[in-house]
Amino acid sequence: MARLHLHLLSDSTGETLEMIAKAALAQFEGADVVRHFWPMVRSRQHLDRILPELGADNTMVLFTLVNPDTRARLEEQCRQLGIPAVPVLDQVTRALERQFGREAHGRPGRQHIMDDAYFHRVEAIQFTIAHDDGVGHENWEAADIVLAGVSRSSKTPTAIYLANRGYKVANIPIVVETPPPPALFTLSRPLVVGLTTAADRLIQIRRNRLLHLGEEKHTAYVDEERVREELHYARRMFADHGWPVIDVTRRSIEETAAAVIRLLGERDRVPSTSRVGGAA
Length: 280
Hints:
alpha/beta
C-alpha cells in the first residue's frame, strides 16, 4: 500500500477532525499514513500558504471549514489537482438542519465557546487534579465519581479523561497495609467504581514503571504473590461495599471512561453522555 499524505484542515482547534481521522485510520492496520495538521485556517491568505503543500502524490484532504469563501477555494484547488477533499461534518450538519428545520450558524469553533459548560469543565479538571491519589478525602462528597483500585490500575488517566468530559473525579489507591480513610465508605453522592486488572498485566506495567525510574531490582511491588494478594484485597473491598467493578485489562482509557459514564447514567437514570456535551 502506497504512503498516503492526509491533510487535516480545520478553522478551529482541529480536535474533532483529528479524532475522526484517528478513528477511521484505526480500521486500516499497517497503513502508511503521514498526517499534516493545519488548525485555525480562518482566512484565504492562510489557506493560500497551505495549498502548495497539497501537491504530493497520493494525497487526501479532510476538512472542517465553515467559511464559504475559504471552503470554495480549497475545494476548487483540490479539484484542479485531482485530490479527494472530504468535508467530514457535512452529512451530520445537514441531517440536523433537516431535523431542526433551520440552518446551522456556520461559526468556527462554536463548540469551544467559553460558556457555562466550558467553565464547568475547567472546574471539574481542577477538582480532579486536586483529588488525585487519595488526596483531599474531606471533599470527596463533592465528587461525581470516585475511582478506587490498586497502584497502576489506570485510575489517574481515567480520572483526567472523565474530568475533560465535565465530571469531578477523585481517585484512591487501595493498599493492603494502609486502609482507605473512613470517608470512602460513607459517600452518598459520588458513584464509587472499583478498577481491577489481570495480575500478569499489572506486573508488566509495574515492571515497566520501575525500569522507567531506573529501578531494576525485584521488589514486592512486582512480586506475583504479593500482586495477587493486593488484587484480591481490592476486589473483596469492592464486593463488600457493593461497588461496581470494571476490569481494565483489555480496555483503553477511553473505553474505561465510557463504562464509568454508563454506570453513572444507569444509577441516575439519565442518558450516559457527557455532562457538558463532550469535547468536540
